[in-house]
Amino acid sequence: MVTSARTAIPALLAVAVGATLVTVGPAAGAERPVGESTCASTNLNVSAGPPDVGAGQLYVPLRFTNTGDRPCTLLGYPGVSVLNKEQKQIGKPADRDGQVPAAVSLAPGRSATAVLRTTNGPIGGPCLPKGAFLKVYPPASKDAVLLKVPFQVCSNRFTVSPVSPVSPAGAITP
Question: What tens-digit pLDDT sequence spans the chain (174 residues)?
Fold first, then answer.
């Protein structure tokens, strides 16, 4: 990570006052293709893939598929919260994992993905109660999608990656 005076001073101030530093707006170089609009939640199918467990971590991919008839763009991070069976939030929403987002252009029928991460059990901290749903806000959307997906946050670690392209074979690209 490159630190400049522009980012170091606010970060130090955030640490000094115990605040969380949040960067607003797209990263440098992350731009939407000309003439392409942001993917509306009404034109997205949001789904969760199977969990992947490894080295004490649990990863769950979230897939965003363009169901519209025009190309659109996703840029940034989805908002994600875990809800209980009464649809009440458990713990805090997922933190952004710090990766630099890039615009993902989605032709009709194409997908992008983001990955949720927590620990696979109480490694260095307790687990919160197991949730029954994930509440997912696609990037740049105020409309949430409710997914019936059991999920449990453990060890105070709950992050989400920015959206990234999915290869034609369906594999998640790094």
Answer: 343 333 333 333 333 333 322 323 334 344 545 557 999 999 999 999 999 998 899 999 999 999 999 999 999 999 999 999 999 999 999 999 999 999 999 999 999 999 999 999 888 889 999 999 999 999 999 999 999 999 999 999 999 999 999 865 544 443
Burial class for 60, CB neighbours closer than 10 Å (0-12, 13-18, 19+): buried
CA distances to 2, 66, 69, 143, 162 from 42, in Å: 37, 9, 12, 9, 20
Helix (H, G, I), strand (E, B) or coil at 17: helix
Pair of tokens at residue 38:
């942001």
State phi, psi for 39 to the nearest 5 degrees.
-65, 120
- Non-local (6+) Cβ contacts of 148 within 8 A are 132, 133
Tokens representing 77 are: 């991070």
Beta bridge partners of 172: 166
| DSSP β-ladder status, 164-165 and 111-119 | antiparallel
| Pair 75, 105: CB distance under 8 Å | no
